[in-house]
Write a structure and sequence with these properties.
Strand content of chain A: over 45%
Radius of gyration of chain A: 14 Å
Number of strands of chain B: 10
Strand content of chain B: over 45%
Strand order of the largest sheet of chain B: 2-10-9-4-5-6
Largest interface: A-B, 22 and 25 residues
Distance between the termini of chain B: 36 Å
Largest sheet of chain B: 6 strands, mixed
Radius of gyration of chain B: 13 Å
Number of helices of chain B: 0
Number of helices of chain A: 0
Oligomer: heterodimer
Number of strands of chain A: 11
Helix content of chain A: under 10%
Chain lengths: 122, 104
């Protein structure tokens, strides 16, 4: 069974650093892209970026480039999303998702983590 | 950067209604569009990929179609469990702003 299990909720202060995780199991972790998606309170889904754990090839949305870092440790089948200096505006739910090449050679997020709620408040 | 728009932003419907949601891309993206259902407190769920292919396990009342840069998600007969927010996605990145389907 494919599973993506994310780390637990975090409460941080502005300026602090944070690294959240997403552990994959039940499939070959190194051969599927893992993406990160943000949902701010009351807002829609935003594509942040994606990583290929096999070689750590990473792509970012222009909106998130330089704001976050996506990484992966293939030895433990885990992807990460990190911030060096959090802002209140980073308060959101963050989802990781596995991207598959579907039957029509279309990439899609077919399995999702349960989400990690990040709250940044002084 | 490809931009996605959706209409309507919200709609009210009753069980049994036919519901249609439209998504438009800012440029030609072939059939590289996916549709997701998202309920509060749950992870999003893939419904349709490649504009019209039904994801495994998704009820056949959901369907997708494409005409040029316009994409449509149709729920043929709305069920109680279908009240949710629906997002289109350009397959390689951007999500649309979402369409909330609630009870009339």
């Amino acid at each position: 069974e494919v599973q993506l299990v994310q780390s637990g909720a975090e409460v941080k202060k502005p300026g602090e650093s944070l690294k959240i995780s997403c552990k994959g199991s039940g499939y070959s972790f190194t051969t599927y892209w893992i993406g990160w998606v943000r949902q701010m309170p009351g807002k829609g889904l935003e594509w942040m970026g994606i990583i290929y754990p096999g070689d750590s090839d990473t792509r970012y949305s222009p909106s998130f480039q330089g704001q976050v870092t996506i990484s992966a440790d293939k030895s433990i089948s885990t992807a990460y999303l990190q911030w060096s200096s959090l802002k209140a505006s980073d308060t959101a739910m963050y989802y990781c998702a596995r991207q598959s090449e579907m039957a029509t050679i279309t990439p899609a997020f077919d399995f999702w983590g349960q989400g990690t709620l990040v709250t940044v408040s002084s | 950067d490809i931009q996605m728009t959706q209409s309507p932003s919200s709609l009210s419907a009753s069980v049994g209604d036919r519901v249609t949601i439209t998504c438009r891309a800012s440029q030609y993206i072939r059939s590289y569009i996916n549709w997701y259902q998202h309920k509060p407190g749950k992870a999003p769920k893939l419904l349709i990929y490649g504009a019209s292919s039904l994801q495994s396990g998704v009820p056949s009342r959901f369907s997708g179609s494409v005409s040029g840069t316009d994409f449509t998600l149709t729920i043929s007969s709305l069920q109680p469990e279908d009240f949710a927010t629906y997002y289109c996605q350009y397959s390689y990145s951007t999500f649309g702003p979402g369409t909330k389907v609630d009870v009339k």
